[in-house]
Specification:
Two copies of one chain form a homodimer. In chain A, 35% of the residues lie in helices and 21% in strands. Chain A has 418 residues and is of the alpha/beta class. In chain A, strand 3, helix 3 and strand 4 form a beta-alpha-beta unit. In chain A, helix 1 packs antiparallel against helix 3 and helix 10 crosses helix 12. Chains A and B meet through helix 8, strand 8 and strand 9 of A and helix 8, strand 8 and strand 9 of B.
Chain lengths: 418, 418
């Protein structure tokens, strides 16, 4: 059994060095899929791996980068990693921590001459964050077979019209050969991803780390509310069918349904809302909005949708507006693998921290990887729950904890899995 | 005393003919300030006046068009008219009716060889409707001295960046000579404008016409609501500062304040609302909206604003959001002239209709004209209260009534005024 610990100073330096790539003048990081900073970050990682691990990097057809340290048995690798891209004006931990911690784990194994039964591979996935190609967790989505060549070849950047094909070529992939990137059952023994929590549950409980038991399901409706776009002066109050007021009632009713559940593991949001014609002197005639529900329990989602329908009926009746609802996403929750979770929990116990299991309220590459191999995640506390912003931060002592817990979990899996 | 009546068939034909100018494929009329259709409508009117009245047209520096039939005394003219521009996809009565009825009145005087003490002038004002130069009732605003040369020279089209100067030149005006367009006290004896009501008060009362006792005051606030734009998945319900939910509460509270007044002559609307960043997976961090109140009673407006402040305080406290309010318009109500109103009421009596006085809930050129001469308005019923849309319509029998009532009012004023 290994009693080595990770080199936290080295990991801290690597986090800092990589964070300079794409740093903007607001203190945030712009490292979107296919950007110049994406390419630079890839170069940085490849140069680091080459220099410090002396292992070859394999870039697959969707431009995910893989580095593999050999094991002593002829079995499939255990993969660890995350992604190196960021949201616009994002932070330095979301994604990068998972990749650099995976790197640190392999480096510490190497330094200590630790042999493992399984090869241990590092992965940095392509385009995990939402981006103007409208496809998130792109790299893991492709390798898990959730999206095929034809669909990928049709994708364009909604902002500038450039193709995903050109974008992927620029970063070393090739959509024409996407079939080669598919991971088949048995290709990988297990996958573990370390990620910041991005919420307040750990900070509120004063805990450093947790294992993830389920990655949230995401349900979205496009809702159109149709009223009557009359003159805001000449239409008396009692004659109005104001689409925006209908939307306001719906949003508040939706919030009440959610709050009444008194749960920290189900959330609902209307984040997108547009008014037509959107002029100060015209009563809103139409509103388009996107309503989102996130939960790991399909029954709770159904229950919210049912209650929402009752509220929508009331609003239509009372206000004389029409409410047209269309499901545009119903992505099921993804429970994490029991064996991997147990190993992560033991890793957390091994560093003297309490075992805590959390639902991941955000999507992650691990949800796709769970489709092709047994997968798990380990969360580390986000200070103030902040993420996707320049002030995203994690205490270095907590990074040390999550690193040593993950190292232990990795070695447990290496012993236990075939 | 004249016992002639207007020629309703001719007026009906003229309304139909002018409505072809700028007609779009949705059945509406696109005749915005400075558009090709604006220029065509001007040509149509000038050709009609030239052919049927044989009177010269004077186009002033803001491109208002004036036609004057001589009186027999050396006194200032009584002016009648309205505007010929429309909102995008507007109707065929808003504005055009006032100009064509004024034309019909002069034509009928001419045909019947009726001499008047005052010259009777027709005016068709420039750019009465809201437009991308962000200045409505432009022509009457300029002649009444509400906006000066420097300000006008700085105005640009917010959609395409072109200048108001170029626009006005294209339609026959010249912003450099704007001083010449000013109307001084004594230049005009009185002003009467006929317009569709654009609301449901006449249709609900089954009445054809009304005189206007006051043109509504318009008060607008730009309101910014600042919350916290967090991750819509990882931020639990109780930790949110959702700016949109704050805006929803404010809008519903505002509606309740208005409805509790149980008045048809005070209205309030949030017609413009934008959400930032406006993404399905991000809690709205900021909302910008425009709130409008219309009333002829400043005290009622103050009262609404006071109640709104109480509600805004509650929302800030309960939701942890900031609400920043800034008055961007506080245009006072404009009571119409008593003498002109009395003449209009007598005109209405003369056709056997009940006298009804209404507040105009929309702004009109007459509000500007009241600043420089005694002014009044006569309203005619809008079917279903519709306006600013292709289905805007007025019964032809009601147009005949308003025409004859206005003819009578004009002759009364001609007799009574010096």
């Amino acid at each position: 059994m290994l009693h080595s610990k990770i080199n936290i100073n080295r990991l801290e330096k690597n986090l800092k060095d990589l964070s300079a790539v794409g740093k903007n003048d607001k203190g945030g990081i712009d490292r979107a899929l296919g950007s110049e900073a994406d390419r630079e970050a890839r170069k940085w990682l490849m140069a680091y791996w080459d220099k410090n691990l002396e292992l070859p990097v394999k870039t697959d057809a969707i431009a995910n980068m893989w580095v593999e340290r050999a094991g002593i048995e002829g079995i499939a690798p255990i993969v660890i990693g995350s992604h190196h891209d960021t949201v616009p004006n994002g932070g330095m931990y979301d994604g990068a921590l998972g990749v650099l911690l995976a790197t640190e784990l392999v480096q510490i194994l190497e330094e200590n001459n630790v042999t493992t039964r399984h090869p241990i591979a590092i992965v940095s996935f392509t385009g995990e964050e939402p981006n103007p190609f409208n496809v998130s967790t792109l790299g893991s989505r492709v390798v898990s077979g959730r999206v095929g060549k034809e669909e990928l070849l049709g994708i364009k950047n909604i902002e500038d019209g450039t193709t995903l094909k050109d974008c992927i070529e620029k970063i070393g992939g090739d959509l024409e050969k996407i079939q080669d990137a598919l991971i088949k059952t048995g290709d990988i023994s297990a996958f573990i991803e370390c990620h910041i929590e991005q919420g307040r549950r750990l900070v509120d409980a004063n805990q450093a780390v947790a294992s993830v038991n389920c990655i949230i399901g995401i349900y979205r409706e496009n809702i159109t509310i149709i009223g009557d776009a009359n003159h805001a002066g000449t239409t008396v109050m009692r004659d109005r069918q104001d689409a925006l007021l209908g939307a306001c009632e719906l949003n508040l009713a939706f919030e009440k349904i959610l709050k009444d559940l008194e749960s920290d593991e189900v959330v609902g949001t209307i984040g997108y809302l547009s008014v037509f014609p959107n002029a100060a002197n015209i009563i809103p005639g139409e509103v388009e909005l996107v309503l989102e529900i996130r939960t790991c329990e399909p029954q709770i989602k159904e229950d919210i949708v049912r209650k929402l329908s009752i509220e929508a009926e009331k609003i239509m009746k009372n206000r004389g507006v029409k409410i047209i609802r269309k499901v545009n996403l119903d992505q099921r929750e993804m429970p994490m693998d029991e064996t991997v979770m147990k190993a992560i929990n033991k890793g957390i116990e091994s560093i003297g921290e309490p075992v805590r299991e959390l639902v991941s309220m955000a999507g992650h590459d691990a949800a796709n990887m769970q489709r092709v191999t047994q997968s798990g995640m380990i969360f580390v506390q986000s200070i103030d729950g902040k993420s996707h912003c320049p002030t995203e931060k994690t205490h270095i002592k907590d990074i040390e904890k999550v690193g040593n817990a993950m190292l232990e979990a990795l070695l447990i899996l290496d012993r236990e899995l075939d």
